[in-house]
Amino acid sequence: MSAMHAVFVGNRDACINVLPASLESIARHFAGMTSLSMEDRFKLPVWDQGESDVPVLRGALASLQGKIVAAKEVGSHSVMFVETTQIRVRTDGDSLIYFDRNFHRVPRAWTGQWVI
Questions:
Q1: pLDDT in tens, 50-69
Q2: Which residues pair with 30 in a beta bridge?
Q3: The whole model's pTM is what?
Q4: Whole-number Å distance between alpha carbons of 111 and 33
């Protein structure tokens, strides 16, 4: 279990941020690929304060805020189920994925309008 596991389980408030390719450096910090401490990661000037005081990544393609309502142990991981209370979506930017031990840009394939 990660060091953040107890924080999530104890707090129950969470924000899931979907990163654009332009924020790969932030992804690398949170993947533990740099020497930046967890405390210093949240001191970077890239955070807004969301509902329930959760940090919301400025510039994320999508940010889903909510409450952790359940957690299930699967192998060496915990899968946390979040009841979403607020969603923020950008309509521009390419996605970022992690595959085959590296980050990759996924070009935006659809340029239409989201209806939420």
A1: 988 999 999 999 999 999 99
A2: none
A3: 0.83
A4: 32
